[in-house]
Structure formats: C-alpha cells, structure tokens
Design brief:
The protein is mainly alpha-helical. The protein is globular and about 50 Å long. The chain is built from twelve helices and no strands. The N terminus is likely disordered.
C-alpha cells in the first residue's frame, strides 16, 4: 500500500469515527457517558457499532437519531429489506459510501462478529414493521433479544469475550436494558401503536386492550410496569456476574452503564403513574455517583469466587 493510499484510508476512517461519535452523542447520552471509560480501540469500535444500530433503527422508523419524522417515499418493509441487503454486502466486502455502513464493515471484520448477529437485530426491527403482539413475558423477552440482547453480544465480542457464559450474560444486560426502556417509554410507544408490555400483565393489572395510552389507566399501567421491572432484575444480576470476565476498563464502562439504566428503572417504579409526565433520566450528578459505583463493582467482582451457574428458568438465547 502506498503512503498516499494509507493516508486516504486513515482520513476516511477518521471521518467515519467522527460521524459515529456525533450519532452516539445525540442518540444516547447514557451510553455515551459510559463509553468514555473504554480504551481507545474498544471505544472506537463500540461507537461505530452503535452508529450502525442507530442508523438502521432510524431508517426503518423514518427518524433521525430516534426523534421526529422524515419524508420517505418507500415503505418501512422496503427500507428494512434494503438494510438486509446492505448488511450482507458489508460482509461480502462491498464498500459502502454511507458512514454507518463503512464503520460497520470495519468493526465486524476487525472483531470477527458473525453475520447472524446483525441479521438478528434486523429481525427485531422486522417485528416492529410487522406489528408483532406480545402476549407473555417470554414473547417480550424474545423481542428484547433481537433489539438489545444481540447488541450486548456484539459489544462483548468487541471487548474480546468469546466464552458462551460471558456472551450469555452480555445478552442478559441487553435484555435488562430493553425491559427498562420499555417501562420508561410505554406511554409514548403506545401512542405510536406499539405495546411491548406483555398483554397478560396489562390484563391482570386491569388495563383494557388498546387503552394503554389512556390517562385514566396510568395507575394500572404503573402496576404492570412494576412487574416488568421486577422481571428485569435477575438479568441485571446475571450481567454483573459476567462483567468480571471483561478487560478492566471495559468492565468499568459496562458496570457504569448497568448502573445508569437500572437507576432509570428505579425512578420509573418510584414515580408510579407520574413516571410518564416527562421522560425519566439520570442527572449529571447521579451519573457521576453511578460511575464511582461502577468502578467499585468492576473491581470487587474480580475478587469474588467463581459465579454460580446461570439459572435455568431465565430466558436464554439460542446458540
């Protein structure tokens, strides 16, 4: 490779990373804060993977960084089919001019991420496009795997994990994150015609079908969401056991992210029916406190004995 060609590739990589950094800064402040703890190489790959995930989600929904709407002349199904095709081309080594796909191609090659994982994520977006209904917690957890658990697996691969037990617990963290997101956004999602809280939990709480967004049912929705947050707890616990296997800086980042998302769920539970008057988040001061706790957890998990086997009753991804 000539010096000129190497320089051009370095500039292109820098542009891709800059675009990815912008995407994460605007799209997820919680993840952006935790990602600062990664070593430079891991951070770059994590940020570029996030940018691809965010791009695909936005393309399907016709949004920009998860907000608003943009004009689109084709259907969500057509846009999703195009994403499948672009993803497969990335694995085939076909260059892409789009920064998110250029970044994605670099990351999956460098970290040997199997093609089935990003395709699993796109399958999750297809569940939204098809308007999938979720009758039970198992149904909701299957959705959580496709849109978040598999991202946890890919992130763990970027951090160097390869053992099945570690990848399963990375998936657990993704499941817990998504259950928390569902709980925080349940009213907003219902207004868009998407209900991820299991129908059986809503029925048991007394929420009539199709009326999740009705303000009259906020106390009942809060009761159903409290049970969903209860269901997230064992997955948060399992994730903590897996952190010990990560490089220390990565362990600090993931422990911090775990603390931030779990704190959001705690706030949703505590606020009850008022949780959806405005979007629940953590303050800068709270994030700093959770950062300190994450550093402590990353260290103490390394001093504990071998973790117990993962409970058989928990939802488990396929091989």
């Amino acid at each position: 490779m000539s010096a000129g060609q190497a320089g051009r590739e370095e500039l292109a990589t820098g542009a891709v990373l800059a675009a990815s950094e912008q995407a994460i800064a605007q799209g997820s402040q919680s993840f952006a804060a935790a990602a600062r703890l990664f070593d430079p190489r891991t951070r770059a790959d994590a940020v570029m993977l996030y940018a691809w995930c965010r791009h695909c989600d936005d393309v399907v929904d016709g949004q920009v960084l998860g907000h608003g709407r943009v004009l689109a002349t084709d259907s969500p199904a057509d846009r999703l089919d195009a994403l499948y095709a672009q993803t497969r081309r990335a694995y085939a080594g076909t260059p892409s001019a789009h920064p998110a796909f250029a970044a994605f191609a670099e990351v999956v090659k460098r970290n040997e991420i199997p093609e089935r994982y990003p395709l699993d994520l796109l399958d999750g977006f297809r569940m939204d496009v098809e308007g999938r209904a979720y009758a039970t917690l198992g149904d909701t957890l299957a959705y959580c795997y496709h849109v978040a658990g598999v991202v946890g697996v890919m992130m763990a691969l970027i951090m160097g994990a390869r053992e099945r037990e570690v990848l399963d617990r990375a998936c657990d963290l993704g499941l817990a994150f998504q259950l928390t997101n569902i709980s925080r956004d349940v009213i907003e999602d219902a207004g868009l015609g998407r209900v991820y809280v299991p129908a059986d939990l809503l029925a048991e709480a007394g929420v009539p079908e199709g009326e999740v967004a009705d303000p009259r049912h906020r106390p009942a929705v809060a009761a159903a969401v409290a049970r969903l947050l209860d269901a997230a707890e064992p997955y948060y616990d399992q994730a903590l056991l897996g952190i010990r296997a990560l490089p220390f800086r990565s362990a600090c980042a993931i422990a911090t992210a775990r603390g931030v998302y779990r704190a959001i769920g705690t706030k949703v539970r505590a606020q009850g029916p008022a949780a959806w008057d405005r979007r629940v988040s953590t303050s800068r001061a709270e994030k700093l406190g959770l950062l300190a706790r994450g550093l402590l957890e990353a260290g103490t998990t390394r001093l504990a004995g071998p973790p117990p086997p993962r409970p058989a009753h928990l939802w488990t991804r396929s091989a």
